[in-house]
Amino acid sequence: MTTEMHSTSDRDAFSRFYGVIPAGGTGTRLWPLSRAAAPKFLHDLTGSGSTLIRATYDRLCPLAGDRVMVVTGTLHRRAVKQQLPEISNDNLVLELEPKDSAAAIGLAAAILHRRDPDIIMGSFAADQVITPVEVFQDAVREAILTAARGYIVTIGIQPTHPSTGFGYIRAGEGLDIDGAPNARAVAEFVEKPSEDVARGYLRDGSFSWNAGMFVAPVSLMLKHLEANEPELHAGLTEIAEAWDTARRREVVRRIWPTLPKTAIDYAVAEPAAAAGDVAMIPGAFTWDDVGDFAAIGRLNPAAENTELRVMGEGARVYSENASGIVVSDTKRVIALIGIEDVVIVDTPDALLVTTKEHAQEVKKAVEHLKASGDTDVL
Amino acid sequence: MTTEMHSTSDRDAFSRFYGVIPAGGTGTRLWPLSRAAAPKFLHDLTGSGSTLIRATYDRLCPLAGDRVMVVTGTLHRRAVKQQLPEISNDNLVLELEPKDSAAAIGLAAAILHRRDPDIIMGSFAADQVITPVEVFQDAVREAILTAARGYIVTIGIQPTHPSTGFGYIRAGEGLDIDGAPNARAVAEFVEKPSEDVARGYLRDGSFSWNAGMFVAPVSLMLKHLEANEPELHAGLTEIAEAWDTARRREVVRRIWPTLPKTAIDYAVAEPAAAAGDVAMIPGAFTWDDVGDFAAIGRLNPAAENTELRVMGEGARVYSENASGIVVSDTKRVIALIGIEDVVIVDTPDALLVTTKEHAQEVKKAVEHLKASGDTDVL
Known about the structure:
InterPro entries (chains A, B): GMPP_N, ManC/GMP-like_b-helix, Mannose-6P_isomerase_type2, NTP_transferase_dom, Nucleotide-diphossugar_trans
Strand content of chain A: 25-35%
CATH architecture of the largest domain in chain A: Alpha-Beta Complex
CATH class of the largest domain in chain A: Alpha Beta
Structural class of chain A: alpha/beta
CATH topology of the largest domain in chain A: Spore Coat Polysaccharide Biosynthesis Protein SpsA, Chain A
Number of strands of chain A: 15
Oligomer: homodimer
CATH superfamily of the largest domain in chain A: Spore Coat Polysaccharide Biosynthesis Protein SpsA, Chain A
Number of domains of chain A: 2
Domain MannoseP isomerase/GMP-like beta-helix (chains A, B): 322-369
Keywords (chains A, B): Nucleotidyltransferase, Transferase
Pfam family, one (chains A, B): ManC_GMP_beta-helix
GO molecular function (chains A, B): mannose-1-phosphate guanylyltransferase (GTP) activity
Radius of gyration of chain A: 21 Å
């Protein structure tokens, strides 16, 4: 709808847009539901009927059509194709091994730049939950128009509480960009703060959460990557040159394992902000990165008259004076009696029992299991 | 050892002794470990390496040798024979359908009486935990000698707390019986009391718990059964007459389904006590009827430096700040994080999560599942 009101040159910006979905990370805080072999993005964690990656793809469709690239691990090729049957092989970029976000997003930028140097890419992680999608899409449209003016544009999430689990974006002055009335300069990115500092950010009002979403000309992304991570840039460029040729396999096998592991924040976003090249669109939508089982509780409405949220097709749960979350990935009968704020995740080979309060510590259990050799269930 | 000191006529009493083990009841408060198809007595609930029925049989062996009869449901024939491979078919009495304790114990009494009217039977449920066994055996020896003088002799358990879950026995005057210095008359059996009343019993000192154990001449048992439940007595007598003949099957099928369901306490013990025919030997041993999962916690020592008791062969449990009981009947990894006094029972088709405090309510869950048609897991 908003699109209708933009000018011809705006439409040009929109036609240059290409969605990129980095689909990585095992989501260890969601073990045993989320696994190395079945990570977070392959699950329907909201009870919507769609997996997170499918919902992410669908959210980009009105903006990008079929111009959406997914970057994921070779292990997930089959599952991703099953979730996104319409994706072409050109748009499915498989990582030989995990190399962190700078390599994943940088590879997408380099391949897209090789195909068309005018592309404006928009990178959105595969495992986030956003609602309403129309508000998100309007923000991305503003971001595309801002990016077309030569910015790396992040979308800042309005904080709802003084979270210590996210990085923050400090907004600077407003930018005067046609069709992007909410665009502002980014003064700086700041690391995950202490709770006191986070409270200050909330009071201040110019801070938003960094959800890792950004929209930018691929050329500008690569320029900053080259300046900050020249080795990574050189490697990705060489891979991108070979990507759409018969040499892809040979070049990837030779170079990918040698690439440095670093986050896109350090490799591009923070230095670009320091150089004044980063802008921000505030996102007035609800956003959740489904970081732990407490988030799953928030995202799944409880059935009427009960404090117990049950997820899982065909779940057979009997409860009496119980509250919390049950994720049933089996057809077993689960009986809960007299237990409060519990988190139960029941899968065929592993069972987690904890509380909402301890949901963040699930990661430790996974680390322990890894150390003790119980890798069959990770 | 005690036996050596008894006289010839005492030995005669001992040679008349026949152990009877009623093995019934599904132990619904121990669901989903205990099931209709795999009741409490078929499990090793103490971590001893023996199932409860095996331990019960072994406890009677020094007293009865191979003169031990088991009364159980046809459903459990195979499992009982597996647990007690030495049992002869003559000593395995199968109930066509459950008919409560008066029919089960009465049938054993009637069959034994038919085979030898001088038998003194000792009935001990298959699902109790007793230690030390020598103290139990000494009490039974006193009970046998007292029974030989024409008493139905119960063994009273010294109460350790004002339980509202057991019936009580009020002891009367001491009896003067050779070789049974602790024998006393029983003034009355009293029903499960309120907590206040139970506290009074403890202070009074003449009350003990009724563990349902008794030793009695089969003729005396049958006499009281005939007086109080003539229909039941007549039916059991007809079945017993046919039992060791080719007519057993036909007679059982015709009569068993028509028998009234009642407890041995009402059919024999209470009226016999009123008639002055019941005596009591105090049992100075530790006794547990493993009534719920809290009992399983008591009976299984925790591993060093942990408040978490884990039962189950090959259990794979990871815990962090967790206490309570885990019963693992699968090979699944179970991770517990930050949860106190929890009770987790993990079986292939059903999972129970509750707390020690709510352990008694498990029965309700089973009733609910039955009502809702989830009988596949009961």
